[in-house]
Inverse folding.
């Protein structure tokens, strides 16, 4: 699959000019949309949901998480009381429902090892630091069957580089990945979506 965005609104910081930016991320690629806000993140996701729904001949946003990995790293009250291994196990039950129980268990164990979550596997999500919580979200989406990814990367430089490493080990194995971040710190070796000089990304309403 391919991630595409067309005519995202770009307003100049000076406020006297406006433009638009379009981009494409092919399978196996990662590109960064630097300067993107939460609104940009949400707009790109909605565009992908609509694209997938249109491809299936359907309407609405149902079933979106089994098509697009949405990784924000933000906690959700609904599942914060679950342990890491149970959260990933639940995702495997949904995403790998046709597989035998033993296979689902093996996939969960492999994901915990790959993400480096072995030491926190019995902790509840609300007890995790931001990086570990982000990793759990990646594992959840991967086990649910995500093929393409829109990923928010924030934090200090160490956390950013750790997240990029996880992306290349887990996310890119299943499709294209678009990073949305407020800064290029830690993402220097990732190709960026270009915008006019001095522009600030703002989603057109």
């Amino acid at each position: 699959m391919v991630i595409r965005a067309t005519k995202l609104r770009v307003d100049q910081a000076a406020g006297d000019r406006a433009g638009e930016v379009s981009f494409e991320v092919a399978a196996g690629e990662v590109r960064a949309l630097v300067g993107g806000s939460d609104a940009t993140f949400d707009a790109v996701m909605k565009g992908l949901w609509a694209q997938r729904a249109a491809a299936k001949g359907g309407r609405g946003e149902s079933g979106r998480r089994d098509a697009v990995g949405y990784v924000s790293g933000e906690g959700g009250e609904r599942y914060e009381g679950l342990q890491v291994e149970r959260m990933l196990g639940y995702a495997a039950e949904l995403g790998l429902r046709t597989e035998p129980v033993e296979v689902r268990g093996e996939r969960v164990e492999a994901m915990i090892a790959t993400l480096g979550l072995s030491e926190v596997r019995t902790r509840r999500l609300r007890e995790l630091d931001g990086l570990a919580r982000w990793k759990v979200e990646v594992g959840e989406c991967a086990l649910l069957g995500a093929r393409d990814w829109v990923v928010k990367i924030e934090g200090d430089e160490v956390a950013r580089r750790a997240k990029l490493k996880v992306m290349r080990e887990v996310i890119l194995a299943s499709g294209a990945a678009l990073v949305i971040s407020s800064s290029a710190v830690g993402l220097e070796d990732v190709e960026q979506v270009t915008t006019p000089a001095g522009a600030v990304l703002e989603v057109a309403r």
Remarks:
- Residues 38-55 form the longest helix (18 residues).
